[in-house]
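User: Could you write out the 3D structure of this protein bound to magnesium ion? I've included everything you need below.
Assistant: Certainly. Input first, then the structure.
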Amino acid sequence: MSLSADPAGIAQAADLLRQGLLVAIPTETVYGLGGDARNGEAVASIYAAKGRPSFNPLIAHVASVEAAKRFVNWSDQAEALADAFWPGPLTLVLPLRPGHGISSLVTAGLETLAVRVPAHPTARALLTEFDGPVAAPSANPSGQISPTTAEHVLSGLNGRIAAVLDDGPCGVGLESTIVGLSGEPALLRPGGVALEQVETVLNTQLHVHQVGDALNAPGQLESHYAPDAPVRLNASTARGDEVLLGFGPVDCDLNLSATGDLAEAAANLFAALHTLNATGRPIAVTPIPDHGLGAAINDRLRRAAAPRHT
Ligand code: TXA
Ligand code: MG
């Protein structure tokens, strides 16, 4: 369904988001595939709609600096960059604040959150009306070109989203610049704001990483996702002292989805691993189908079970 970018269309889009449904939204960079960032199942359905093979962390879009401060630990550097470039095509990665309420599927289990206040008037009106954080990757199937019109969005995702809020072509057409501020300031992705402009405001040179490198390097992901205890996959029962993480109608200590719903399982995954890790016991996991979101769940579980490098 296509909604027009007028007050009625924006109100309807906000309603759909409140119901946990997905709405593609225009931003000044690219169209984003938006879902309520606090609703794990809504976020899981973003990954499913894009056909993303793995849980890359997503950007949380908010209406204002004040809204961003509810979710992350703010800093002087964040304040300086927000002053200079928000609303606009700049994303800041900052430490999550206690009690943030953001689904761990948005952060892919990281302890930082990427936040952005978009400049597009329709995006801002929607975020204000919705009054909550909206997780939104680019609204394209994984691996395809980013969408800068509602038609692009529909050609890739029609039938997999509730609606697209159509406000014509995007102004910037290039994704936001991502700056990491959880340690030394770092450029994580070049984008709509030039590196030099950021460096001028911070009065320092940025470390330059590539987001893909940092997050896809298996060692780094493993060391992040791996619980303290060993993880054994494709288990049918617990052995010895193991706690059993199940999927579907199985007898286990904790179930990702008793009904065998992969979206529910994806939404529960990181929280379940945290809970079981806290028991201090080794973790066994029953088989999970390797299709749809199951492939992404298995990808994470394989990393969690991989031999440790330390
Ligand atoms: O312009 C944009 O940023 C668009 C519009 C819709 O806002 N969104 C976008 O999202 O490009 P996406 O998901 O295609 O790219 C987000 C990037 C990914 O490369 C991801 O790895 C990185 O942001 N990212 C998200 N959270 C992160 C975090 N906590 N730490 C490091 N990188 C993060
Ligand atoms: Mg993208």
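The pocket of threonylcarbamoyladenylate (ligand 1) is lined by residues 27, 29-30, 32, 56-59, 89, 91, 93, 107, 110, 112-114, 116, 136-138, 175-176, 178, 188-189, 211, 215 (CB under 6 Å).
User: Perfect, thank you.
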